[in-house]
Amino acid sequence: MTAIHFIGGEKGGVGKSVVARLVSQFCIDKNIPFAAFDADASHGALRRFYNGYCRPVDFSSFDSVDAIFAEASEGNLRNVLIDLPAQSDRLLERWIGDSGIVDLAAESGIPLVFWHVMDDGKDSVGLLAGLLARHGERASYCIVKNLGRGKDFSLFESSPAKAQAERLEATIIELPELHRPAMQKIDQLDASFWAAANGAGDDGLARLDRQRVRVWLYRVYERLATAPHLV
């Protein structure tokens, strides 16, 4: 059974692509067959770091985005991952609605998982409420509280959106923050997380940086292992 994972959050700067990169590396390290699509035409972070596993997709063209469902229904995979850019909900929902993707996925036995990556601001909570209202019980959800983008999630914790997420049995995980200078070096090097953790040492990453990445990945993987339909 192949699951389709839409990794988004609609708001810019919350770390959607970092999560998409982590889920990709998790699948690689755990030998989980997957395909990945990058829907961000302007930045393409997933293609930048995982080019050998990822290809672009254009949500403004049904001919392009239909490849997602074709991959899920025809390929011998466990997961199909889509890295969604900010403000992509309108195009995504047009494709889902006009193509009857929810019903077709249910008929095909393909779970749909919406990942909502969030910071600790009010906008992220409101956008989550909208996502849950649109799809309700017809999908699964993984809510990622990104500690690299906020530390006080009390607004979310006390919100009706969280209560609704719990009623829908959404998975809620905390993404620990990687030491910021180490993350900056990884991004400057265009390195995968595997390369950052296991490189030869001639790329500017210090030994302690690599150790921090390894510890961080271990903690992240513990949390990702609880995500719906990923393992």
Biggest sheet, in brief? Answer: 7 strands, parallel
Task: Say what the CATH topology is.
Answer: Rossmann fold
Based on secondary structure, the structural category is alpha/beta
Helical content (DSSP H or I, runs of 4+): 40-55%
- Shape field: globular
Architecture in CATH?
3-Layer(aba) Sandwich
Computed over alpha carbons, the radius of gyration is 17 Å
| Estimated share of beta-strand residues | 15-25%
Give the N-to-C terminal Cα separation: 11 Å
Write down how many β-strands occur, each being a DSSP E stretch of 2 or more residues. 7
Please give the CATH class: Alpha Beta
| Order of neighbouring strands in the sheet with most strands | 3-2-4-1-5-6-7
Please tally the helical runs, counting DSSP H or I stretches of 4 or more residues: 11
Number of domains: 1
Series of H and E elements: EHEHEHEHHEHEHHEHHH
Give me the CATH superfamily: P-loop containing nucleotide triphosphate hydrolases
The mean pLDDT is: 95
Uncertain segments are none
